[in-house]
Amino acid sequence: MEESKLVELAKSGDRQALAQLVKNNEQTVYNFSFKICRNRDKAEHIMQETFFSMIKSLHQFDGNSKISTWLYRIVSNHCLMLARKDKSRTFVSIDNDDELYGDKYTADWSNIPNLNIENTELKKILDESIDKLSPEYRIVFLLRDVEGLSTEETAELTELTVPAVKSRLHRARAFLRKELNEAFSR
Amino acid sequence: MSEEKPKCKDVMQHICESLGEELNSDKCVAIKNHLDSCPDCKSYFKTVELTIDYYKQYKVEIPKEAHSRLMNFLDLSDCE
């Protein structure tokens, strides 16, 4: 059944349709939550809160965008809220261009094995690198580059201007690339 | 930034800004010309692309138990 029809039925109280909407989107939401918080327990908690919020405010959904786009916004807000509560965490500053673009190490990227389920070492590197980025940068990178939203959609979801999204995006990309380069040179 | 002769740092910054976007402005053409002839920038461009690819490929499946707990939490487990 088409998403718009499911939304219409769910809004009118059809619980089967609502359950189907949840099932159709749970993988996307779980995966995206995990990518932001890099922790399975937190990802599950955020997924539950996200769908709870979705059900509570489904009547406000205007149908002009896909449900998944709307869910990305809810996940992002929950993650930012969680991160702001956790005042013990500090993140690296990525304002210095010379540090961001200058390489101290030479890595041979051609020898990096493909990412697969068994490659826990590479996953660890990816987790540790993105974990150093503040959630504000992480969310922009994930929405735009990993989930494939447009710059404009990312700006709308994060309530940033398009230039601000571009600025955060290029710094996040440069930072992650630098972190990976250092890790691969070890 | 000079449009005729961009420096490596300018190119790297621009690569990071505009990957995945339209590259047809005068500035972008100058950047592409530089990229064609500069191995350092070419390599940098490739590694930024690879960085994004790694994060794209890194997906996690929702565990079955997490799905069940979600449906319980939402009081929808009878709709399975």
Principal-axes geometry of chain B comes out as rod-shaped
**Beta-strand fraction estimate of chain B:** under 5%
* Radius of gyration of chain B over all CA atoms, rounded: 22 Å
Enumerate the spans of chain A where pLDDT stays under 50 for 5 or more consecutive residues: none
Oligomer classification:
heterodimer
Overall description:
The complex is a heterodimer of chains A (186) and B (80). Chain A has 186 residues and is mostly helical. In chain A, 69% of the residues lie in helices and 0% in strands. Chain A has helices at residues 3-11, 15-37, 40-56, 67-85, 97-101, 120-131, 135-146, 151-158, 162-184. In chain A, helix 2 crosses helix 4 (67-85). The mean pLDDT of chain A is 87. Chain B is an all-alpha fold and 80 residues long. Chain B has four helices and no strands. The termini of chain B are far apart. At the A-B interface, helix 2, helix 3, helix 6, helix 7 and helix 9 of A face helix 1, helix 3 and helix 4 of B.
Descriptive key words:
heterodimer, A: 186 residues, B: 80 residues, 0% strand
Draw up the topology in text.
The complex is a heterodimer of chains A (186) and B (80).
Chain A (H helix, E strand, L loop, with lengths): L2 H9 L3 H23 L2 H17 L10 H19 L11 H5 L18 H12 L3 H12 L4 H8 L3 H23 L2
Chain B lengths: L7 H11 L7 H12 L1 H19 L6 H10 L7
Helix pairs in contact in B: 1-3, 2-3
Task: Summarize the entry for a quick read.
The complex is a heterodimer of chains A (186) and B (80). By secondary structure, chain A is an all-alpha fold. Chain A is 69% helix and 0% strand.
